[in-house]
C-alpha cells in the first residue's frame, strides 16, 4: 500500500476533453490529464507507459485515478461494426469480427489492448490505495468484452461495480448515459442536470446561489461523496 491518501493529485488517462481533470482542478486538486493527443508518450497502448503509471501509483504520486477508454470500436453504432456481442455461437466475435480489413482489425485489436491496460491500471490504483474509476457509454461493448476476457470478474473480486450515471456529471453540456466502473456508488444523475452543470462545473464565480437558495456545493464535496470515485 502506498501513501496515496497523502497525495492531493489526480491522474486522468485517455483524458480526451479532460472533463474529469477540469472538475478535479475546480475542487482544488492538482490534476494531470494524459492522452496521446497531448503527448505521444502518453499512449495507453504502450506497456512501458502503463508500467510507468503503475509505478507512480505505488510511489503514492496520486490519490485519484480515472481512465476513459475510447469507445469507437466498441460502439454498437459503428457501421460496419468492428465486433458483435449477440452471437452465442461465436463469443469470440466480441474481440473482433473476422474478414475485416487489415486497418479495421488493427484498430479493434489496439482498442482491446487499451481496454486490457485500463484494467491493469484500475487494479494497480486500487491496490496502491487510490480511488479508481473507468467510464464508457451504457451501450458500449467494452462491458461484454470485459466479461469475455474475465476482467469483469477480476475487478468485481476487488469490489468494483458498474454504476449508471450521465455524462453531464463529467461537466459535459449534454446528457449521454454512461456507466462508471468503481467501488463507491456514484451520486445518481437526477436528469435535471442543468443546475449541477452550470453551477458546479461551468460557473466561474467563486460563490453562487444554487436554485434552491443554498450555497453551491463544491466538487470537493462530490469527490468525498463519490459520484465518480471509489474508496
Radius of gyration: 18 Å
| General shape | globular
**What is the fold-level CATH name, i.e. the topology?**
Rossmann fold
Q: How many separate helices?
A: 7
- What would you call the structural class? alpha/beta
Query: CA-to-CA gap between the ends?
Result: 13 Å
Uncertain segments are 185-231
Order of helices and strands: EHEHEHEHHEEHH
Question: What portion of the residues fall into strands of 2 or more residues?
Answer: 5-15%
Strand order of the largest sheet: 2-1-3-4-6-5
Helix content range:
25-40%
Question: Which CATH first-tier class would you pick?
Answer: Alpha Beta
Main sheet summary: 6 strands, mixed
Whole-number average pLDDT? 77
Structure report:
The chain is α/β, with parallel strands linked by helices. The chain has one domain (4-70, 109-225): Rossmann fold, CATH 3.40.50. It has seven helices and six strands; from the N terminus they run βαβαβαβααββαα. α3 (102-127) links the parallel β3 (64-67) and β4 (131-137). The longest helix has 26 residues, at 102-127. The model is unreliable at 185-231 (pLDDT under 50).
In short:
The protein is of the alpha/beta class and 231 residues long.
List keywords for this structure.
231 residues; alpha/beta; Rossmann fold; six-stranded mixed β-sheet; 7 helices; globular; disordered C terminus
